[in-house]
Design brief:
The complex is a heterodimer of chains A (590) and B (192). Chain A is of the alpha/beta class. Chain A is built from 21 helices and 20 strands. In chain A, β2, α2 and β3 form a beta-alpha-beta unit. The chains are: A alpha/beta (590), B alpha/beta (192). At the A-B interface, β8, α9, α12 and α13 of A face α1, β2, α2 and α3 of B.
């Protein structure tokens, strides 16, 4: 009997690559791709495969490391999220020259929705625009086989190949056989999946294919319809064009852009994004696909069961009041305190923000922009120049995380220091790449497989780039943090040049595995609450909520970690209220 | 047979471990099963949904009004995900409240759905640790023995998914959850 294991799509991709014999894997973490590299490490150990594995400082480095190895004859793979592929553009486009001696698979994981990205972006479109072969995985089991096929295809073509996944494939879980697949199976699962007539032909790839099959099943749509599954999106097989020609009407279901639709290109007969049948944005969930298929099939007079939503459910739920739970920094996150201090020190500042956990500073009014990795510094430079031209000088307070700093900020910060751009940069150092699952940063010196060597302190890099004002402190000391931000502002005014950099250092509580501090519970905020809501509006800890019926703030003990920061924010407590800590709780950075 | 189950709660409450147990129990009983997780952006305290499908499905999505079961590990998330529950479905909600709001009860009745409010935190706290309330929920669910989800299969799957040092406690809490379901169904049976 074969051994199976329930795993997520990203583990299945790693299994496929390791089975196919990769020699090297490099990645920069980014949801939904982050679990692939740790899974490569896992399968390397289980199979005792001699694979070189590393977290790179960004996606371009990851791709160039893999590209270099592939030029030298190795089978290499690199992994990233869809917007990470943008960072790796220079080597990606140069890779078309068919120069590889080995093979290179680029796994790019898209985020339809988007759920955890600044934009949707279709890696299939990038590949198609620039003539790079691309395969679209539809399930974890499919992704495992397609990963192995992509590696062989790359070796044959001597050029890089993109394996596209989406979060719904990367994070789906199913049982996968651990036995090596028979060679005959290592091929794209592509072709006619339903053949029940020519009235409507559905052309689809990736997860959308499986959703469409489930929807057709539920709607009982079984006459007049055929479905063609595409696995190799570019170059597209002539059979797909032949299928589309045979059909009276074609519906294209794909995420997230018009790729198959544009390649098929026979306007009037195609329902898709161009015709308005498929929404231009958002994930193609079961409900979305069900509505599309109902509409298109209904328009063609095909017999199908009708589904109409029962809106009495929403009506009933609308009568209940329950927490909305928008995305927020975790309870006890040290950098909620950093954002709070920035806003308190300069309430009217402009706040260029960045990518990662710290995008969530928007909830505290301390992040105004979120463009790309390192973008906080570039935008701060532009704001500084624009304000200078206009003779106005609102303070500019930029922020980014420690992993983002090493990923993208070095040339930007050098440029800003060289030109004396006037802004304050707060580097929020939590010791790890937290949002994507605690991957190591250059400062920690941690390596992918657990070794630690040659740590590079942030301050050393900042000073080396030519920044004059550099301060480091623990943001849990909120009064000290506010004071330091103001000092940075004073320094910009006095010296007439910047930037000024503050390294706010305190480890991520999840990374440090700090649970709830049960040794010293914090005093109840509700006891002397006068309803000013400062804690809720400017601090916004998920453990604090305002109870309108009682007119006071309350703490959710299931979420509170007893960090005590709210005690430093509440004017009642700061004014000498009962239970005020003598001084900020000291927690040593690790 | 096919089953669609929506597991929902907030980060840090064991929703994903519970759904991992459900998939494990189904696959080891010989069923095809898949799941899809939605974590949102916050790591702790944010909404978490895990969709579990057992049987001959192709995609891991659960459609509106299609779920046979909602397991809600946090009351607020039950309301947020109620649109998934099918007519005649089963909901199990971790809550200390004696009853749901009137309008929600009315819509559940009209749709012939059954909802059990379970003090899973209390059960878990008394039997071991509040942190294991997800196991109390699974134990309660096992009482209904839907498809592969018998108490024995769930206990077996817990054995393969839970760290060894927590195993005894988790099994005890799961058993206490099942006992609570049996007691509440006895009460229902004798009620006039």
């Amino acid at each position: 009997m074969s051994t199976t294991e329930v795993m997520i799509g990203n583990q299945a991709i790693a299994l496929g690559l390791v089975e196919a014999g990769i020699d090297l894997a490099a990645a920069y973490p980014g949801t939904p791709s982050s679990e692939i590299l740790p899974a490569v490490i896992d399968f390397k150990q289980r199979k005792r495969a001699p694979i070189h594995i590393e977290w790179s400082v960004n996606e371009r480095v990851a791709m160039e490391v893999a590209f270099g190895a592939a030029l030298a004859g190795k089978k290499a793979a690199c992994m990233m999220k869809q917007v990470g592929l943008n960072v790796a553009f220079p080597p990606l486009l140069r890779g078309r020259g068919k120069a590889l001696k080995g093979a290179l698979v680029i796994v790019s994981c898209d985020d339809p929705g988007p759920q955890s990205s600044q934009t949707e972006q279709d890696s299939r479109l990038v590949a198609t625009l620039f003539n790079l072969p691309v395969f679209d995985a539809s399930s974890p089991a499919d992704a495992r086989l397609l990963a192995a096929h992509a590696l062989a295809y790359s070796a044959g073509m001597r050029m890089p190949v993109i394996l596209r996944s989406t979060h719904r494939v990367s994070h789906a879980r199913e049982a996968i056989s651990l036995d090596p697949p028979p060679p005959a199976l290592i091929a794209p699962d592509e072709g006619l999946k339903v053949s029940k007539g020519r009235r409507l032909g559905i052309v689809t790839s990736g997860m959308s294919c499986n959703v469409a099959l489930d929807v057709m099943d539920e709607l009982g749509l079984d006459t007049g319809v055929s479905l063609y599954k595409v696995a190799q999106v570019f170059p597209l097989s002539p059979e797909v064009f032949a299928f589309a020609r045979e059909m009276e009407h074609v519906l294209v279901l794909e995420e997230t852009d018009e790729v198959l639709e544009a390649l098929l290109g026979n306007g009037g007969r195609i329902s898709g994004r161009g015709s308005g049948a498929v929404p231009r944005q958002g994930e193609l969930t079961f409900d979305v696909v069900r509505a599309i298929v109902q509409e298109v099939a209904g328009g063609l007079g095909l017999k199908a069961r009708a589904f109409s939503p029962d809106r009495t459910i929403e009506d009933a739920v609308s009568t209940v009041s329950f927490p909305r739970r928008p995305p927020k920094l975790c309870a006890g996150c040290p950098h909620r305190a950093s954002f709070y201090a920035m806003r308190q020190a300069f309430p009217k500042a402009v706040f260029p923000g960045d990518i990662g956990c710290y995008t969530l500073g928007t909830t505290q009014g301390a992040v105004d922009t979120c463009v790309d990795m390192g973008g906080s510094i570039g935008l701060a430079e532009g704001f500084s120049d624009a304000f200078e031209q206009d003779g106005s000088s609102p303070p500019i307070l930029a922020s980014l995380g420690d992993s983002t700093f090493f990923h993208a900020a070095l040339p930007l910060l050098y440029d800003a220091a060289h030109k004396g751009k006037k802004f304050i940069l707060v580097i929020m150092d939590n010791g790890t790449t937290a949002m994507t699952g605690m991957q190591p940063t250059p400062q920690s010196g941690g390596r992918a497989e657990g070794k630690s060597e040659h740590p590079i302190p942030i301050e050393q890099a900042v000073k080396g780039l030519g920044v004059g004002f550099v301060r480091t402190l623990d943001p849990y000391d909120i009064p000290g943090m506010i004071k330091t931000v103001r000092e940075a502002g004073a320094d910009l005014r006095e010296r007439g040049r910047g930037p000024a950099v503050i390294v706010a250092r305190h480890p991520c509580l999840l990374f440090a595995k700090k649970g709830k501090d049960t040794s010293s519970p914090v005093p109840d905020l509700s006891a002397d609450c006068d309803g000013c809501k400062k804690c809720v509006k400017f601090f916004g800890c998920p453990a604090c909520f305002f109870d309108e019926s009682e007119g006071c703030v309350k703490q959710d003990q299931a979420v509170c970690v007893n960090c005590g920061l709210c005690q430093l924010v509440c004017p009642q407590k700061k004014g000498g209220g009962k239970g005020r800590p003598e001084k900020p709780r000291q927690r040593r950075p690790q | 047979m096919k089953w669609e189950i929506v597991c929902t709660g907030i980060g840090g409450r064991g929703v994903l471990l519970a759904s991992a147990v459900l998939i494990e129990a189904a696959t080891s009983a010989g069923y095809r099963a898949m799941a899809s997780d939605e974590l949102g952006m916050s790591q702790r305290g944010g909404s978490v949904v895990s969709l579990v499908k057992v049987g001959s499905f192709r995609s891991p999505f659960v459609g509106r009004e299609n779920a046979d079961v909602i397991l809600s590990f946090e009351e607020s998330e039950f309301y947020r995900n109620l649109v998934f529950l099918k007519r005649g479905g089963l909901a199990i909600v971790n809550s200390r409240k004696p009853a749901l709001p009137g309008a929600v009860n009315a819509v559940l009745d009209a749709r012939k759905a059954v909802c059990h409010l379970v003090d899973a935190d209390g059960i878990a706290g008394r039997a071991g640790s509040v942190q294991a309330s997800n196991m109390a929920m699974l134990g309660f669910f096992s009482h209904f023995a839907l498809g592969p989800y018998t108490f024995e299969n769930i206990i077996g799957a817990i054995g393969r998914k839970v760290a060894a040092r927590l195993l005894d406690m988790n099994r005890t809490v799961c058993g206490a959850g099942r006992d609570a379901a049996q007691q509440s169904s006895m009460k229902t049976e004798v009620a006039p």
